[in-house]
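Thread: quick sanity check before group meeting

JM: Hey all, I'm pulling together slides for Thursday and realized we never actually wrote out the predicted structure for the chain we discussed last week. Dropping the sequence here so it's in one place. If anyone has concerns about the input, flag it before I start.
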Amino acid sequence: MVDPDIVSDFILRVPVRCYRHPPSYFHGRGANAPPRWCEHWGQGWEAKHGGWEHAAHAPVQRAAPVPTYQRQYTGKRYPAPQQQAVLHSQHYWY
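JM (edit): ok, ran it. Output follows.
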């Protein structure tokens, strides 16, 4: 469980059709629309997060850079699963 005040707008806008087992309070909303969070979490939440449903889509954050040793493995040169395990043990110490 996460406090509703800290849930990202990206998560809030996931359409109802993407939920495997949508909760009962999702019913009555179009499958391609996000759930009605303000009806579920109340007026206090709605006051803090007004417009979440219609907010401009922020650009997707860039992916983290590939580790230095992996940059040499592009396309068809990517190591086989067995070799990946060996490389992982050589380059990751956590």
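AS: nice. The two ends are 28 Å apart (CA to CA). The mean pLDDT is 80.
JM: adding both to the slides.
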